[in-house]
Design a protein that fits this description.
By secondary structure, the protein is α+β, with helices and mostly antiparallel strands. Helices cover 39% and strands 18% of the residues. It has a 4-stranded antiparallel beta sheet. Strand 2 (97-102) and strand 3 form a beta hairpin. The two termini are 23 Å apart.
Length: 163
């Protein structure tokens, strides 16, 4: 993907929206130091360029009853592109899997799974993930606690590149 050239105002807009996607255009324009109409044009351009992919609420999973987070390391029998895509499509249909990353090395995929309790995850593991086509091995690690959660990307790293 070609990297889009961003100026300081674009970066500030992205930072503000990443921190608070519900901010009004008027408040956003004040924070970044431009008037509302050009601010809205810039936001629309950032959306059109694919840099802003959507807006969502950051939910408190524990407060909603999702007590268990597990990382599942999956090894496949075959790493042929068609088999990788088939596994990714299957994973996409499983609501408990919140993230799926293909890796290089000994593990083919790591899945972040969220469940209300351990028995729900165990059922998913034994009924869906382990017997899935092409799955050779599954190793799981149950999270004890989460000490950092920052959605998005570290935009500060782009600022240092520009200087």
């Amino acid at each position: 993907m070609k990297r889009v050239k961003l100026d300081a105002i674009d970066l500030q807009i992205l930072k503000e929206l990443q921190a608070d996607g519900r901010i009004t255009n008027v408040e956003l324009s004040e924070r970044v130091g431009i008037s509302a109409p050009p601010c809205l044009r810039r936001v629309r351009a950032l959306e059109k360029a694919g840099l802003i992919q959507g807006y969502h609420a950051d939910l408190n999973g524990r407060a909603l009853g999702f007590e268990v987070t597990v990382f599942a390391m999956v090894g496949l029998h075959s790493q042929a592109e068609a088999d990788l895509k088939a596994f990714e499509a299957l994973v996409g249909s499983w609501p408990l899997v919140r993230e799926c990353h293909m890796l290089n090395g000994d593990i083919d995929f790591i899945l972040k799974c969220v469940a209300p309790d351990l028995s729900t995850f165990q059922s998913f593991l034994t009924e869906k993930l382990t017997p899935a086509p092409n799955v050779a091995s599954v190793r799981t690690s149950l999270t004890i606690r989460q000490s950092k959660h920052l959605p998005g990307v570290p935009l500060e790293a782009l600022e240092t590149e520009e200087e």
